[in-house]
From TrEMBL:
Name of this protein: chitinase
GO biological process: carbohydrate metabolic process
Enzymatic class: hydrolase
Domain GH18: 47-337
Keyword Signal: yes
SUPFAM superfamilies, A to Z: (Trans)glycosidases
Species this chain originates from: Streptomyces flaveus
UniProt superkingdom: Bacteria
Family: Belongs to the glycosyl hydrolase 18 family.
An annotated Gene Ontology molecular function: chitin binding
Length: 337
């Protein structure tokens, strides 16, 4: 999940070796499609900040939705839970862990955030998530159950944070089915790990490209990661501006619209096992990608002024640090060209 500390180094090492010895990047030549962000993201700003809100107490500041800092434009509620029906999800508010926060208060807070122009979505997956969409039936169950949660709680959409594999064929089916039910205002975000977006042949990348016309933003997790390839074929290590810009370039040159790419970082050192960078580094990466300034050694082949923005795990860990992340990154994102 965003914030996951599980070890994936062997998987990364194998995948990186395969990429280094084989075809490094396969860039898709896609017909121009109007992304959801340009189509009807219903009042989302051109540049947006996404924050995950924890529906559990893991030592970070316990928050109600009403406590979430105003800089966040998209609030991803973490997480929906799997059910005994393949592909289906439900949501269980952790009232006890959140100091007696009630469902009625939660629903009212969603409406209040929406009245402020924010989007509140439900995130599916996480490090411990067991949701699997692997056939047509489970794809249908996923779409129906997420739509039901949207109707019950008022969620604006869904975040895909499946960290145990993703089937592009059936996740595409599920999200298109959900879109047909929810309409053009549906918000769809994704939070893949770095390895998931190294090549357009990967299931996550395929899914993002398959739903490009309805996709809002991909906020890749630039943390808890091994070294990865940038779009120049060089290897970069996490924790630097080059890691952010060179890996974002893979997505930007691989077929996603700039408005569909965001930079996902921890809000504090406690928010992830590794990969934390100060907010100033996030802002430098945003400047490098959008304006060609404040770059490190890696220089993108072009600028991407429509880059969507940034994401953090989590609003709760941000609060622990006095909202230092959102106070620095939020205004910077919103002031981008």
């Amino acid at each position: 999940m965003p914030g996951s500390t599980g070890s994936r180094r062997r998987r990364w090492a194998r995948a990186l070796a395969a990429l280094l010895t084989g075809s490094v990047l396969t860039f898709a030549a896609l017909a121009a499609q109007a992304p959801a962000a340009e189509r009807d993201a219903a009042a989302l700003p051109k540049h947006a900040v996404t924050g995950y809100w924890q529906n559990f107490n893991n030592g970070a500041t316990v928050q109600k939705l009403s406590d979430v800092q105003a800089q966040y434009d998209i609030i991803a509620v973490a997480f929906a839970d799997a059910t005994s029906t393949p592909g289906a999800v439900t949501f269980n508010l952790d009232s006890a862990g959140l100091g007696g926060y009630t469902i009625d208060q939660f629903k009212a807070d969603i409406k209040a955030k929406q009245a402020e122009g924010k989007k509140v979505i439900v995130s599916v997956g996480g490090e411990r998530g067991t949701v699997s969409v692997s056939d047509s039936a489970s794809a249908t169950n996923f779409a129906n159950s997420v739509h039901s949660l949207m109707q019950e709680y008022g969620f604006d959409g869904v975040d895909i944070d499946l960290e145990n594999g993703l089937n592009a064929t059936y996740m595409t089916q599920a999200l298109r089915s959900l879109s047909s039910k929810a309409g053009s205002s549906l918000v769809i975000t994704m939070a893949p790990q770095t390895i998931d977006m190294q090549s357009t042949s990967n299931g996550y990348f395929q899914t993002a490209l398959n739903i490009k016309d309805i996709l809002t933003v991909v906020n890749m997790q630039y943390y808890n990661s091994g070294s990865m390839l940038g779009c120049d074929g060089k290897v970069y290590s996490q924790g630097s501006v080059d890691f952010l810009t060179a890996l974002a370039c893979v997505q930007l040159e691989g077929g996603l619209s700039p408005s569909q790419v965001g930079l996902g970082l921890p809000a504090s050192p406690s928010g992830a096992g590794s990969g934390y960078v100060p907010p100033s580094v996030v802002n430098n990466a945003l400047d490098c990608l959008t304006k060609g300034t404040n770059c490190g050694s890696f220089k993108p082949p072009r600028t991407y002024p429509d880059l969507r923005g940034a994401m953090t795990w989590s609003t709760n860990w941000d609060a622990v640090a006095g909202n230092a992340w959102s106070n620095a990154v939020g205004p910077h994102v919103h002031a981008l060209p």
